[in-house]
Design brief:
The protein has helices at residues 4-19, 21-28, 107-112, 119-129, 141-149, 152-164, 170-200; strands at 40-43, 53-56, 58-65, 72-82, 85-90, 95-98, 207-212, 215-220. The chain is α+β, with helices and mostly antiparallel strands.
Length: 223
């Protein structure tokens, strides 16, 4: 029986890591001072009721504008995406900065620009800016059900059911447990139906005219 408190404490810490990302980072991750070698980053949004988010660090080859220059030099860039916004690591400043288009170009630069001339240049621009689309992934039923069952209130209900099972009317507790699981299943199904409805309301890609190598061609607006 001496190991029971240790098991309960470890289980509680794992649950805290699932509920609070800061605790998860403290338990499972190691600090890396060099962002170019990191695998994930933690983001603390300055928005009310927003919790710490864990984002995957990515690396890719694409062109970046050099200081005081209009040309772009292709190199390996460390970046991450957060809330459909890309942040790249600036080695000179030693911090991540939001990827933005330089608005300081003269008007003649835009009038003389003939667009992307080569397919490799288009692919490099897609790696840099990403496709012009807004999408969200639809989770599967079982992972979402597991997320629902690990919610603090449901864990508290399971703890209460476990205590009630010590009573002689344990079969009533099992019936309550089955009803709780069925209720969470209905909630997950409703969430999945809502996601399907939102995806069905999405804007379908249209064809637009874009300049490629000095010629106007028809491309998808996502490009």
């Amino acid at each position: 029986w001496g190991s029971v408190p240790v098991v309960c404490l470890e289980l509680f810490l794992h649950l805290l890591g699932f509920w609070i990302n800061s605790v998860y980072c403290w338990i499972h991750l190691n600090r890396q001072n060099d962002p170019t070698k990191a695998q994930v980053v933690t983001v603390n949004p300055h928005v009310q009721n927003s919790k710490v988010q864990i984002c995957q660090v990515k690396r890719a080859m694409f062109g970046l504008q050099q200081a005081n220059q209009k040309s772009e030099k292709e190199k390996e860039v460390t970046f991450f995406d957060f809330w459909h916004t890309r942040y790249i690591y600036d080695e000179d400043a030693g911090q991540f900065k939001r990827l933005t288009f330089d608005p300081e170009f003269e008007f003649s630069f835009h009038t003389k620009n003939s667009g992307y001339g080569k397919e490799a240049t288009v692919e490099s621009a897609l790696k840099k800016w990403g496709p012009n689309e807004f999408r969200f992934s639809k989770p599967d039923f079982l992972p979402m059900l597991g997320q629902q069952m690990l919610a603090p209130f449901f864990v508290f209900q399971l703890f209460c059911v476990a205590l009630w099972c010590l009573d002689e009317y344990w079969y009533y507790c099992l019936f309550t447990l089955v009803m709780l699981v069925l209720f969470e299943c209905t909630v997950v199904k409703q969430r999945l139906r809502n996601l399907d409805t939102l995806r069905g309301m999405g804007h379908k890609p249209q064809s637009i005219m874009a300049q490629r190598g000095g010629r106007w061609v028809q491309v998808s607006e996502q490009m």
